[in-house]
Write a structure and sequence with these properties.
143 residues; alpha/beta; 3-stranded parallel beta sheet; two-stranded parallel ribbon; 5 helices; 15% strand
């Protein structure tokens, strides 16, 4: 069962509607709860909580707009935000900066998960490890 106030926001530069995102997710979404039961209702519940915002990766204004949309969905409740970054290394620092400065939770926690691989070599990996610490505490970053 999903938490009552759980939402997912996709963010990329590609123009897409909420419904287009849901269709894209539904093509690969599978139910692993009980293979003997139909999970269509649970999958529909999840998809109804998926939304999309298009913006540039280095735009604080676009992340501020994302923050407004998140706050609208969250209402006055405490909110925890988890950013799952599956992005190229060359835009990683810009995204962390913009997300942390303009879209962090003000009344809950903010975390960042970084999908591997992380950099092209030891030098770039070390740089990508160091740079986010300008904007986030180590306990906020999961690699």
């Amino acid at each position: 069962m999903l938490l009552q106030n759980f939402i997912v926001y996709g963010y990329a530069w590609t123009k897409m509607t909420d419904e287009e995102l849901r269709k894209m997710i539904s093509r690969t979404l599978t139910c692993r709860i009980d293979k003997r039961k139909s999970c269509e209702d649970k999958m529909d519940q999840f998809l109804k909580r998926c939304f999309y915002h298009s913006g540039l990766y280095n735009s604080e204004d676009d992340f501020s707009d994302l923050n407004s949309k998140l706050k609208e969905k969250e209402g006055e409740k405490d909110s925890n935000r988890l950013f799952y970054l599956s992005i190229p290394p060359n835009i990683f620092v810009d995204v962390v900066k913009c997300a942390s400065l303009k879209a962090s939770s003000r009344n809950g926690w903010t975390r960042v998960i970084v999908e591997k691989p992380f950099g092209r070599d030891l030098e770039s990996s070390s740089e990508l490890t160091r740079c986010p610490k300008q904007y986030l505490a180590e306990e906020q970053i999961f690699r």
